[in-house]
Amino acid sequence: MRARLIPVLAFALLTLGLGAPPAGAQTAEPEAAQGTALGVAKRAERDTAREAEPGAAQNGFDFSRAEVSVTGLQVPWGLAFLPDGSALVSERSTGRIMQVRPGQTPTPVATISGVRASGESGLLGIAVSPAYAQDGWVYAYFTSTAGDNRLVRLKLSAPQTQEVLFSGVPSGTIHDGGRIAFGPDGMLYIATGDAGNTSNAQNLNSPAGKILRMTPEGGVPDGNPFPGSRVWSYGHRNVQGLAWDDEGRMYASEFGQNTWDEVNQIVAGGNYGWPVCEGRCGNSSYRDPIVTWSTAEASPSGLTYADGALYVAALRGQRLWTIPLNAGTPGTPVAELRSSYGRLRAVAAGPDGHLWVATSNRDGRGAPVAQDDRIIRIPPATDGGGEPSGTCTATATTQTQWSTGYVIQPVTVANTGTAPQNGWTVTFTLPDGHAVTGSWNATLTVSGQTVTARNTAHNGTLAAGQSTTFGFQATRPSGDTSVPSGYQCS
């Protein structure tokens, strides 16, 4: 990695904890800054940052069949999934949490109180409790009107009641970090930025410029590297992506200043070098990233892991980087979705087997189209037989309902792929106490609360661009007004 030169006096002040002047001029998110021009020879040295030619399918997903599944969002930032297969999306500028399903209009389910949205601040990360079916907790991280960044949790059944779990993280109009995620250990991790003050990153008494690890209640868990502290790693400029691979190795995506953006493998107690280093230091006091790009190629935000690879959403780079991993060692990154959808903020592996990607074109730095902001879904590359799988959507309409039942009709199944489909399957979730009593134009089977609807022979082949419908009737307890949800087509 390339080391940045820091004046000796400033570095001495920093190590004494007295603070140092900024290591170079501060910028907003680096996708707004100009990347440094590099010679061909210098670029050749950065073999982990090469841009390979993309293929139609990479690491289990077929990018040639990407489709817009949700439209009309306002600067989506975080993305997390509920047990029914729907997703919760945090909107940075509005403070709203939206529930989204493919092919359906986003629905507001909560508004976070006291959000201050300015520059890069606002409602940022969102996470769903690993024990959501039992405890119902949803977690959100945001910039508050009180002047800090803070973590709250709430239940969608009573969204106005919001419990503050952790507060006092320095905030600013730039470098607020914001990604939150539960790790495989059940602990909650929070990525924070340096809030525009570079000395925060090396100050272990400040929660800014860190990755924090805490219990689901906000406390300090056992196993943290610094006694009594939530700090898990430090020396970060602005981390906005967190992910774990199948072996439990942790990764983070991080914005550089003017030259190098990074993906780091995170270890407990690790010092990742900011503001002494941007990119590789080659200094044993600091941990080097496993991948770097120029800021023009990336400005990386969301990060996820699936099928042996990391996926990184790039804002200024307007592409999705895929990084194959072999026991934690990265292969050559490949750029997908190049400039197809504009700025990309969030990426997550969905329970439907698709990769979900959210745009950020209405954040003041993009060129939005009428449908923005959007969620794009990338389907699996193959089905069980090794042939390209079909792409379809399912959209349900409640035709009529009464105190103890309802009719859902039509459920419209559309072939959004490029090849005919001889069969399709739609799954959805029944609320507790509901029971299917009849169906038409599809064969329905029920397992617990999950219903599977399969194409019937008389429907025949569904040509590309065509649709068909089916319907069903169900009963429910008196006074219950809920209807099925989470429709997914494959």
Descriptive terms for the model:
41% strand; 490 residues; 5-stranded antiparallel sheet; mainly beta
Provide a descriptive summary of the structure in words.
This protein is mainly beta and 490 residues long. 4% of the residues lie in helices and 41% in strands. It has helices spanning 8-15, 40-45, 132-135; strands at 57-58, 61-62, 67-70, 76-81, 87-91, 96-100, 107-111, 123-128, 137-143, 148-155, 158-170, 180-182, 188-191, 210-214, 231-234, 239-244, 250-254, 260-266, 291-294, 300-306, 309-314, 319-326, 329-330, 334-336, 344-349, 355-359, 375-378, 392-402, 405-415, 425-429, 435-440, 442-447, 450-455, 467-475, 485-489. The strands form 9 sheets. Strands 20, 21, 22, 23 and 24 form a 5-stranded antiparallel β-sheet that branches. A 4-stranded antiparallel β-sheet has the order 3-27-26-25, with no helix packed on it. A hairpin with a 2-residue loop joins strand 32 (442-447) and strand 33. It is globular, with a radius of gyration of 23 Å. The two termini are 44 Å apart. The model is unreliable at 1-27, 31-58 and 383-389 (pLDDT under 50).
Give the SSE map.
Elements: H1 8-15, H2 40-45, E1 57-58, E2 61-62, E3 67-70, E4 76-81, E5 87-91, E6 96-100, E7 107-111, E8 123-128, H3 132-135, E9 137-143, E10 148-155, E11 158-170, E12 180-182, E13 188-191, E14 210-214, E15 231-234, E16 239-244, E17 250-254, E18 260-266, E19 291-294, E20 300-306, E21 309-314, E22 319-326, E23 329-330, E24 334-336, E25 344-349, E26 355-359, E27 375-378, E28 392-402, E29 405-415, E30 425-429, E31 435-440, E32 442-447, E33 450-455, E34 467-475, E35 485-489
Antiparallel strand pairs: 1-2, 3-27, 4-5, 5-6, 6-7, 8-9, 9-10, 10-11, 12-13, 13-14, 14-15, 16-17, 17-18, 18-19, 20-21, 21-22, 22-23, 22-24, 25-26, 26-27, 28-29, 29-34, 30-33, 30-35, 31-34, 32-33
